[in-house]
TrEMBL record:
A Pfam short name: CoA_trans
SMART domains associated with the record: CoA_trans
Coiled coil: none
Keyword terms: Transferase
Protein's UniProt name: 3-oxoacid CoA-transferase subunit A
Top-level taxonomic group: Bacteria
């Protein structure tokens, strides 16, 4: 009688450098996070150390001058940015205005949906966002029920790099509060998904009802360390 064969891939890597071993020059990367919340800090530092160049980075924003994706901008490793908000990074502004950096600004909802569509295997969709603006240049326009819509393509990436609160060795991920943001969609959209986690546990230790990204989407996972978790902009009220 034939016995069932179970193949379990070892997804656990020692650190960020090991998990990012095959990222080469000119790769397209999705990097999770919203502002500085939930960004893959260890992976970004590893990319800086690796020295890969000509990267196309898809992220909600471009970090700040000395943290997050701002570190890759400082070292001129990013060739093109696709983002929805870039207002906190002076180096980004300088490179954009000097023509050193290619930039595609995308309405935030459109960016999120383009990533979601990639994860769902849907090549394109129609949205009213951006119609009649520079965003619409070169894009197909159709009318539905008397309203104009732009056709937007799903975003593809060679690698999706995200940071979760907890994960198990099978790649199941749990995010904490705002850190879910773009990361859960990106984890489903990369050809290879790499997750760094604050806490790495064994299978069965995570409540299945609380898992935000099933392990089937995650190819590599490692336990991060020394997280700074900076606040992008602190606003305080004057004492009365």
């Amino acid at each position: 009688m034939l016995q069932p064969c179970v193949f379990l891939m070892n997804k656990v890597f020692h650190d960020a450098a090991a998990a990012l071993f095959d990222i080469r020059d000119h790769a397209t990367l999705m990097l999770g996070g919203f502002g500085l919340c939930g960004i893959p800090e260890n992976a970004i530092h590893a990319l800086v150390q690796k020295g890969v160049k000509g990267l196309t980075c898809i992220s909600n924003n471009a970090g700040v001058d000395d943290f997050g994706l701002g570190l890759l901008l400082q070292t001129r490793q990013i060739k093109k940015m696709l983002a929805s908000y870039v207002g906190e990074n002076a180096e980004f502004e300088r490179q954009l205005l000097s023509g050193e950096l290619e930039v595609e600004l995308i309405p935030q909802g459109t960016l999120a949906t383009r990533i979601q569509m990639a994860g769902m295997g849907i090549p394109a969709f129609f949205t009213p966002a951006g119609y009649g603006t520079e965003v619409a240049e070169g894009k197909e326009v159709r009318a539905f029920n008397g309203k104009h819509y732009l056709m937007e393509l799903a975003l593809q990436a060679d690698f999706a790099i995200v940071k979760a609160w907890k994960g198990d060795t099978m790649g199941n991920l749990v995010f904490r509060q705002t850190t879910r943001n773009f990361s859960t969609a990106m984890a489903r959209a990369g050809q290879v998904t790499i997750a760094e986690v604050e806490e790495l546990v064994q299978p069965g230790e995570l409540d299945p009802n609380h898992i935000h990204v099933p392990g089937i989407y995650v190819h590599r996972i490692f336990k991060g360390a020394a997280y700074e978790k900076r606040i992008e902009k602190r606003t305080v009220a004057m004492a009365q």
